[in-house]
C-alpha cells in the first residue's frame, strides 16, 4: 500500500514538471532537458516575380537559376516554409539579410547586369537548423541601336564624312567598307576608287553592360563623273587656212582628241587642220574617261571650206566691163576695133569675189595674158607701171584681196603694125582686116585650180 502511494505521487510530480516546461519546448527530469521544437528548415514553394526557375522547384533542391531581361532591374521572391514556425531571410549579392514572411513577397531585390546571387535562408523553429536556397539570376545586357543614314548615291570624285549615332555604351561607332570601290581613312572619311555599288557597315561594340549593336549596312551607287566637251564650230573656212582645233573638256585630265569624219580635211600633229579642197568638212572632238570620269559625249561640227573665186572681166572702159562675177569663159569676150591700125586700149579688172570674216578669204590673183605677134604689139599697164613681163610669164599677182575690196584695174594696149597692115591702092591707103585675141587667165594663188578667163579681140579695118 505504501509502495503504491509512492508511485502515484511520483507520476503526479512528473506530469506537473512536463506541464511547466511545455511553453519552452523542453522537458526536464532531474538534470536532463529535452528540446521538442521542430528542426524543419525546408521550403515547400519558391516563386519569383520575373523569369522562370530552373529547374522547377523541389524541396530537396537548393540551387536554381533564372534569366531576366535588361528591363528587369529588380525582382521579388515569395518563399513558403514547410513548418509554420520556421523563419525566412533573403539577401542579394551578399548584402544584408532582410526577413520575409512565409507566403509573402520579399522586398525589392536590385539586380545588376549579369549574374546576381540571391540567397534564401530558412531558420527552423529550433533556432539552430539553417538551410539556404541559392538562386542565380542573370540580368541581360542592354541593347544598343545604331542610327546610320544612307549617304545616298555619290559621284566617284566625292569625299564623304560618315557619321552615325550608337547606343549608351559610349563606345564609338566604327565604319567598314563591306564591298565596292571605296576606301576609308581616318576612320570615317570615305573616298572612291571607281564606280559601282558600295556597301558601308556601321558597328558598335558592347561592354559589360551593353550588347554589341546590330551592325547597320548601307548600300549606294557610285557613278563616274560626267564630262562635257565645249567645242565651238570653226565656221566657214578658206581653203588656205590652217586651223588649230581647240576645245575644253571635263576633269579626267585625259586630253581631247580630234578626227576628220568626212570631207577634204587633213589633221597633223593631232589638232592642226588643213584642207585639200572645197566642200563640207565634219570634225569630231572626243575625250576619254578614267577611273573617276565617264567618257565625254563626242561633239561634231560640220562646216564649209570655201574656195577662192578669182574673177577677170574685160571691156572698153572700166565702166563697161564684161564678165564681172561670170565664171564661164565663153561669155567674157569683148571686141575692140582699131581704125587705121591705130592703138586700142582694153581694160582688165581682177578680183577675188569671196568674203569671210577677218579677211580670212583674202587671196592674190595671178594673171597670165597673151603676147603680141608680128602684126600686133601688146603692152600691159597697171598702177605700178608696165607689167607686161609679169603677165606674159604668169608671175603677175595682185595684193591679197577679197570680195570687200575693189577690183585691180589693168590696161591692155594693143598696137597694130601699120607698116604691115597698110596697103596703098592708088592715092588711098587701105588697111588689112586682121584680128588679134589676147586671152587672159586669172588663177587663185592659194588654190591654183580656181580660175577664170576672159578675152579681148582687136580687129583692124
Report on this structure.
The chain is mainly β and 461 residues long. It folds into 4 domains: 43-139, Immunoglobulins (Immunoglobulin-like), CATH 2.60.40.10; 154-223, Immunoglobulin-like (Sandwich), CATH 2.60.40; 237-306, Immunoglobulin-like (Sandwich), CATH 2.60.40; 310-460, Immunoglobulins (Immunoglobulin-like), CATH 2.60.40. It is built from 3 helices and 37 strands. The protein has helices spanning 2-20, 388-393, 418-421, and strands spanning 26-29, 32-35, 43-48, 63-68, 74-75, 77-81, 87-92, 98-100, 109-110, 114-123, 130-139, 154-155, 160-161, 174-179, 182-185, 189-192, 196-203, 216-223, 237-238, 243-244, 256-262, 265-268, 272-275, 279-287, 299-306, 310-315, 333-338, 344-352, 365-368, 376-382, 385-386, 396-397, 408-416, 422-425, 428-431, 435-444, 451-460. Strand 15 (182-185) and strand 16 (189-192) form a beta hairpin.
Amino acid at each position: 500500500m505504501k509502495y503504491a502511494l509512492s508511485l502515484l505521487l511520483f507520476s503526479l510530480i512528473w506530469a506537473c514538471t512536463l506541464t511547466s516546461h511545455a511553453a519552452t519546448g523542453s522537458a526536464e527530469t532531474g538534470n536532463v532537458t529535452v528540446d521538442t521544437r521542430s528542426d524543419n528548415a525546408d521550403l515547400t514553394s519558391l516563386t519569383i516575380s520575373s523569369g522562370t526557375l530552373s529547374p522547377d522547384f523541389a524541396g530537396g533542391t537548393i540551387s536554381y537559376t533564372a534569366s531576366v531581361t535588361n528591363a528587369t532591374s529588380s525582382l521579388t521572391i515569395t518563399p513558403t516554409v514547410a513548418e509554420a514556425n520556421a523563419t525566412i531571410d533573403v539577401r542579394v549579392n551578399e548584402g544584408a539579410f532582410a526577413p520575409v514572411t512565409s507566403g509573402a513577397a520579399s522586398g525589392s531585390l536590385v539586380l545588376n547586369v549579369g549574374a546576381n546571387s540571391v540567397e534564401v535562408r530558412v531558420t527552423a523553429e529550433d533556432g539552430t537548423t539553417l538551410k539556404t536556397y541559392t538562386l542565380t539570376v542573370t540580368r541581360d545586357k542592354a541593347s544598343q541601336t545604331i542610327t546610320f543614314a544612307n549617304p545616298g548615291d555619290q559621284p566617284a570624285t566625292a569625299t564623304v564624312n560618315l557619321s552615325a549615332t550608337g547606343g549608351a555604351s559610349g563606345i564609338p561607332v566604327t565604319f567598314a567598307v563591306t564591298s565596292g570601290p571605296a576606301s576609308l581613312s581616318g576612320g570615317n572619311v570615305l573616298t572612291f576608287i571607281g564606280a559601282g555599288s558600295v556597301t558601308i557597315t556601321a558597328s558598335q561594340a558592347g561592354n559589360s553592360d551593353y550588347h554589341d549593336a546590330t551592325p547597320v549596312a548601307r548600300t549606294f551607287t557610285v557613278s563616274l563623273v560626267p564630262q562635257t566637251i565645249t567645242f565651238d564650230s570653226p565656221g566657214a573656212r578658206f581653203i588656205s587656212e590652217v586651223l588649230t582645233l581647240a576645245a575644253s573638256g571635263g576633269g579626267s585630265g585625259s586630253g581631247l582628241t580630234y578626227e576628220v569624219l568626212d570631207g577634204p580635211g587633213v589633221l597633223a600633229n593631232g589638232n592642226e587642220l588643213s584642207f585639200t579642197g572645197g566642200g563640207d568638212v565634219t570634225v569630231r572632238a572626243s575625250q576619254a574617261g578614267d577611273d573617276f570620269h565617264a567618257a565625254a559625249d563626242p561633239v561634231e561640227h560640220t562646216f564649209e571650206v570655201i574656195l577662192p573665186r578669182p574673177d577677170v572681166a574685160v571691156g572698153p572702159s572700166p565702166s563697161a566691163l564684161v564678165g564681172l562675177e561670170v565664171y564661164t569663159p565663153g561669155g567674157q569676150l569683148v571686141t575692140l576695133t582699131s581704125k587705121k591700125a591705130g592703138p586700142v586700149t582694153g581694160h582688165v579688172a581682177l578680183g577675188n569675189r569671196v568674203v569671210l570674216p577677218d579677211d580670212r578669204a583674202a587671196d592674190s590673183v595671178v594673171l597670165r595674158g597673151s603676147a603680141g605677134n608680128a602684126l600686133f604689139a601688146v603692152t600691159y599697164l597697171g598702177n605700178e607701171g608696165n607689167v607686161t613681163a609679169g603677165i606674159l610669164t604668169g608671175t603677175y599677182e595682185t595684193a591679197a584681196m577679197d570680195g570687200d575690196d575693189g577690183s585691180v584695174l589693168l590696161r591692155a594696149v594693143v598696137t597694130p603694125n601699120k607698116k604691115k597692115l597698110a596697103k596703098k591702092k592708088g592715092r588711098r591707103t587701105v588697111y588689112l582686116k586682121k584680128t588679134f585675141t589676147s586671152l587672159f587667165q586669172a588663177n587663185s594663188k592659194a588654190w591654183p585650180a580656181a580660175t577664170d578667163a576672159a578675152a579681148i579681140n582687136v580687129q583692124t579695118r
